[in-house]
Amino acid sequence: MEMNMRKQEVLAEGFQAELSEKFFRYVAIDTRADGAAPAEKEPSNPAERAFNSMLGVELTRAGAKDEQFIFLSDGSLIVRFDATAGLENKRRPCFAAHVDTYPKYPGGAVTIVHDYQGGDIELPKSGTVIPAFDLRNFIGQKIVTASGDTTLGADDKAGVAVMMQLAVDCLAGKIATHGAFDLWFCVDEEIGRVGRSGVKYLSPEIVASWTGGLVNLDGMSPNGIDVGCFCGYELIVEFFGNDAHPGVEGSKLKAAHYAAARLVCDAASAEFRLPWMSEAMQNYLYSTDITGNASQSRVTFIPRSFEKEDFALIVDRVKELAGNIAKIFGVRAAFSGYGLQYVNTEPPIRQNQWLMDALLAAHRDVGYDTKENHIRGGTDGAMVNMTYPDLPSPNIGAGMYNVHGPREFLVISEMEDCYRIVRRFLELLA
Ligand SMILES: [Zn+2]
Known about the structure:
Strand content: 15-25%
Strand order of the largest sheet: 1-2-8-3-9-17-10-16
Low-confidence stretches: 1-12
Largest sheet: 8 strands, mixed
CATH superfamily of the largest domain: Zn peptidases
Shape: globular
Number of strands: 19
Structural class: alpha+beta
Bound molecules: zinc ion
Helix content: 25-40%
Radius of gyration: 24 Å
CATH architecture of the largest domain: 3-Layer(aba) Sandwich
Number of helices: 13
């Protein structure tokens, strides 16, 4: 009750019904990314571009001018808002959310709103059950789910809905004074293409104008802000051998797949640490797949560390190991792979402590005792930081849980709080 009072002080307008209406409408549209699409196909699913066009139409109807829109070639959309009089020289943040959804399940959710009072939630399709354990913090809350056979797509339509509500309220003059800000509706985040294709269409001038940072609305709980994340690396080791009849001319066999199997086994050591042997800020070395036969085999490694300097040593050691194993089996080893995929977002965030101060204060003012998270994965910001290493890019929560599967759910009050937090953050910057 006390918390609700505080929220009322922060924001008096009744935006809740409009925000939920947007969310329900957006998640009903299937915009899942297509990981199998060739890199040249931008966006991977044309529905993402159509979705952003629809957002553009909505904002035009709400009063946005053509010159506020920048449609990037990858299908993403930037909407720019000028400062109100007198606040032109305040910091300009860009808020970002991705319009694509997780590729491995269909989108286009048929939503169900639950007045959650405890227990498992059984969804009508595919026998999907959301266990009570996942919901234990949300008794008495309104929870939105899909029907069991699709993702909900709150990741990241919750962030999209919050940004659209902000835009509409701004265009309606409900935010009396504010500094300039931008909204970036990205595409293909779920297949890691924001940093590779999305960023290449951003003009450096626009990025330079984001003096208020790039704030992603793509996290789970408003109780945490993702400040740091893993640096990602990819190394592919290939072995080339010689196939022969194992009985008749077995001595001619140079079995490349044996080398691959041996490499994966030997790399499963305390020296490199496996995902299930590491936690918190510890790094790991993991092989995502191993394929092949006697003539050719292939092992993909994805080392992860919070320090990108660690990779040089890890990669050297894997190459040394692979070289020794190649000798044992009489095969040839070759190395390729993407190399550095994304970097830890923390260094530029630490260089811009004012941003964290403002974000934490905004969360506090809306009633949260928010902590900083270091997440054992990559973020959108981590990919953007590959090209723009100085741009601080934290990630705040929008109320989505169990993402990337049919058990995904949204806590409506947390999505509303995300909107309040963004509003409060804008106030604090002004
Ligand atoms: Zn996401």
